[in-house]
């Protein structure tokens, strides 16, 4: 399967220009169509998506610090606290993540709107659906 630059950008959560820069720099391979447009192989796009995810989850030494593989870095947009619990909303690229944690944890982490945080997702069952392209 091949993707156009705009599709690749949407899947990676970056701008079209970023994808073009990665192509120009050789970080992402592409082929040109007869009309001159770049097309990117799905396997190459998947490889880059994993690289980008690994870069975002690594600390300054380059090592992943946690066992959770599904880490979504974003900005806290809302925190609703009650006596015991806190509902935290995080915008991670195009994804809105809502988590219910203890109020004590939210306070200790200093979670409030505008703070950068990471949602670590661990689940025993995750459904994945195939999306038909238009």
From TrEMBL:
Keywords: Molybdenum. One of its GO terms (molecular function) is DNA binding. It comes from the Bacteria. Gene3D superfamilies: 1.10.1660.10, 2.40.50.100. Residues 65-130 form the Mop domain. One of its GO terms (biological process) is molybdate ion transport. It holds the Pfam family HTH_17. SUPFAM superfamilies: MOP-like. This is Helix-turn-helix domain-containing protein. It comes from Cellulomonas shaoxiangyii.
């Amino acid at each position: 399967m091949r993707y156009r630059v705009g599709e690749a950008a949407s899947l990676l959560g970056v701008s079209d220009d970023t994808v073009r820069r990665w192509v120009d720099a050789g970080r992402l391979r592409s082929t040109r169509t007869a009309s001159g447009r770049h097309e990117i192989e799905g396997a190459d796009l998947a490889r880059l998506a994993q690289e980008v995810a690994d870069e975002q989850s690594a600390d300054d030494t380059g090592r992943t610090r946690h066992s959770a593989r599904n880490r979504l870095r974003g900005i806290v947009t809302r925190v609703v606290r009650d006596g015991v619990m806190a509902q935290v909303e995080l915008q991670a690229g195009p994804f809105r993540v809502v988590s219910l944690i203890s109020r004590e944890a939210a306070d200790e982490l200093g979670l409030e709107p505008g703070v950068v945080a990471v949602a670590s997702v661990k689940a025993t069952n995750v459904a994945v659906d195939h999306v038909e392209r238009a």
